[in-house]
Each structure stands twice: as C-alpha cells, then as structure tokens.
Amino acid sequence: MKIIWHWLILSLALYFVGRIMPNTIVFTPMYTALVVGACLYFTNATIRPIISFLTLGINFLTLGLFSIVINGAIFWSLTFVVSGFHIASFQAAIIGALAVSLLNWILEMIF
Question: What does pTM read for this prediction?
Fold first, then answer.
C-alpha cells in the first residue's frame, strides 16, 4: 500500500510540474502522468542506484552536483519510453526533475 501511495504522490507532482511548465513538459492525455510516475518510481528504485554507483567518481569530484544531471537524464530518458510524454530539451528535463523532486518532497511531508 505504501508503494502505491508514493507512486500517486509522485504522479501528482509530475502533473503539477506539467501544469507549471506547460510548453516544456507535456502529457498528451493527462493519465500519462500516472504512467510516467510509475516508470519514474521503478527507475529510481532499480536503475538509479546502479548509475549512481558507476558515476561515484564524478559525483565525488563535483561534490554531488552530478546527481542533478543524473536525475535530469533519467527524467529525459522517459520521453523515449512513454508515448505521450514530451520534454522540450535536456535543460528543461533538469529543471523539471528538480521541480518534481522538490514538489514530491513537499507533498510527502504534507501527506
């Protein structure tokens, strides 16, 4: 039940960021936010730890700032996996990933 709750909160954060950044992050049908939320939750749980381990040296040299690039790359890569989800550029993906992370954290604290 806790996984479903986190997934719904992440999907809600994705939906709000899509509404805040309307021309850069687009969900063609609105329910695509639920699919992207599920894919992002799965990716963050399985693939992100492996990528973080492999880029540990660069993360160490940049004092952890490279993790922002990793988050943006994972967020941007979902545009190739989920149809109906589009991000205008890689810079928009980094800003969107930061916004989703911040809003997800706020919503997790509220709920």
Answer: 0.91
The angle subtended at Cα 46 by Cα 40 and Cα 51, nearest 5°, is 95
- Are residues 23 and 88 in contact, defined by beta-carbon separation less than 8 angstroms? yes
Q: CA dist 106 to 17, 75, 102, Å?
A: 13, 19, 6
Of 30, 34, 66, 29, which is closest to residue 51 (Cα–Cα)? Answer: 66
What are 39-93's pLDDT values in tens digits? 999 999 999 999 999 999 999 999 999 999 999 999 999 999 999 999 999 999 9
Contact yes or no for 95/21 (Cβ under 8 A): yes
